[in-house]
Amino acid sequence: MFGNQIFAYLLATLVISIIYAFIGPFIAGVIAHLGILILVRGRSFFSTFKAITYGLIVMTGYGVLAYLIMSIMYLASPNSADISGFIIDIITIIGVVHMLIAETIGVSRYHSISKGKAFFGIILIPLIILIIFIAMGGFANYSIV
After folding, report:
1. Rounded CA gap, 29 and 49, in Å?
2. Lowest mean pLDDT: which of 33-37, 65-69, 107-111?
3. What's the CA gap between 120 and 126, in Å, rounded?
4. In whole angstroms, how far apart are CA 49 and each of 27, 89, 135?
5. CB contact at 8 A, 73 and 88
6. What proportions of the chain, in percent to the nearest 5, are helix, strand and coil?
7. 56 and 20 Cβ atoms separated by less than 8 Å
8. Most Cβ neighbours (<10 Å): which of 64, 79, 126, 135?
9. Are the C-beta atoms of residues 51 and 110 closer than 8 Å to each other?
10. Nearest-angstrom CA–CA distance, 104 and 55
């Protein structure tokens, strides 16, 4: 019975991952495009979608790199969970910065706007959502310590 549960979990994870792989870039593109439309009269949604998708591909590369490093560290020393988690956090931060740079350059070129406006347009809607979340007490149940 346990083997069937693992298979069902893996199958569900695969289906959800495939759905997210197709829907995720469109959602990210819509969010970024709304921010750009608030700041400037940009070009088409497809121009924003291309730039955001290129950035997401960069982030996917960093995710694969983090997984490979984690796997190698686990094979070398199965008790290295603390240090591998730290390394993955660093790789993720580098990946997010690289993703934002790639998206900013892409949006800037496709929409013929400055890099500052492109960057602010990309982060505007997520920033508004974060501020609303914090204002509603979104992190009230979490402790820093």
Report:
1. 5
2. 65-69
3. 10
4. 9, 27, 30
5. no
6. 85, 0, 15
7. no
8. 126
9. yes
10. 9
